[in-house]
Every structure is written in C-alpha cells, then in structure tokens.
Amino acid sequence: xxxxxxxxxxxxxxxxxxxxxxPSSDPVPESPPYDGPIILRPNAAPAPVNFKVxxxxxxxxxxxxxxxxxxxxxxxxxxxxxxxQTNIPxxxxxxxxxxxxxxxxxxxxxxxxxxxxxLSKESLTAYAEGIKKAHPGEAEILNYDSNYRSQxxxxxxxxxxxMLAYKITxxxxxxxxxxxxxFILFKGYVLEFSLWGPPEEVNSMLGxxxxxxxxxxLTTPDDTYEQDLGLKKRDSDERKTEVAPAPNPPAGPxxx
Length: 256
Prior knowledge:
By secondary structure, the protein is an alpha+beta fold. It has helices at 3-21, 121-134, 199-204, 206-214, 225-228, 231-240; strands at 50-58, 61-69, 74-77, 83-86, 93-97, 104-110, 139-141, 162-169, 176-186, 189-197, 217-218. A hairpin with a 6-residue loop joins strand 4 (83-86) and strand 5 (93-97).
C-alpha cells in the first residue's frame, strides 16, 4: 500500500542527486590580465666567474675538487661529471652534456640593479611575464604565480633558491626547450644557476646538474648572509614595532 509513496520519494531523491551532479552552467571567471611590471633578461653580460679543477690530498689520499672564484667569493665543489666546459654568451660560466650535448647549464652573476631587484614572488612573476613577452605564443610557464621555491636545488651557499620553470617551443621546428632558472642572493648580487635543453634529456641530467651548486662550500667569508635573506631588516622592523613600556603613573596626593 505504501509502495507508490516509497517509489515517489526514491524518484525525487534520484532527481535531486542528478541535478547536483550536473556541472554548473555558470561560466568560470577568468583571471584579470596581468598589468604589473615586466622584467626581461639583461642584454649586458654578467660578471665573470672563473673555474678550475685541482688536485689535493684528503686523509692521505689524492682527490680532485672544482674551484669557482669571482669578485665576490671563492668556493669549492664537486667536479662536474658528464659535463664539459663551453662558452655561451650571456653567462658567466657554462657547461654542456657529454652524453647529451644539447643539454646545457650555466652560472651567471648579475650585479645589483642589472636584473632581478630581489627574489620576491612579485619579481619572479614579473620575470615570468618577461619570458612570455620575449617569446609571444611560444612560452609556457610551468610554475607561474607559485612560491617559486626551487625543486632542483635544495640549497646553495646555505640559501634556498627560487626557481622559474618554463618551456619554449620553436615556431619553425616545433622543438621544445625546457628551462629551469634558479636564483639566490649573494652580497647583493643575483647568482643564477640555469639548466636547459630537450625535456627528456634535461630530466636525465637533473642529478648531475644539482650536485654542483648543492656542494658549493665557501672558502671566503659569508658576511652578508643575514642581509641577503632579509633577516637584518626583519629584526629591525620587529624592534621598531616593539611596544614601549608604559610610563609610571603620576604620584597621587601625598606621593613621593
């Protein structure tokens, strides 16, 4: 006797579930067009960085190390393996793969005010927009508007790099270049470690690339560490916002 009622209620429930499962017909609002600053890669050459591999004795055994030196620092690191030094304009120091010659990586030392003003999210986004402007319709930013933390280099000189990852497609050959630009601040300069080439070949060389910057060990003082990381300014700002102690209340009648 109650079957028609039960069937009616089941029908209503299924109809309600069906209406909820349907995608909304309302259009998804698009993000407003970017209207902020744009940062392009400099045309001027970066500051030079010297490179050599030297032999030394460690615990009585012969070994080798790579030495990077420039006007700002001298540092030791692991000798690059499966790489050979080459000359690439617009870089301070460059290498190309021995197995994959189309894969290259470079160190570039940019003086203050010549490239990125800092490594804030705003500056990295402005650089991403510069890449898109330099390669209209050809560039795809892979980590746009993120925190830009590097996924390739955990640390370099005790600093956590920021990274812009992107692809550029050649409109004539349709060849794709995958590029990772990693940045740290060092003594007011922007130190860049970049890796690029065909995507599959680049991915095969990631470990051989990252070990060099991650193994950097300074042999000169790092006297701007807190300043580069903004720690001094942060401490100063915190001191400015400290609440001053309240003055003693005036003495009442008969008070001293």
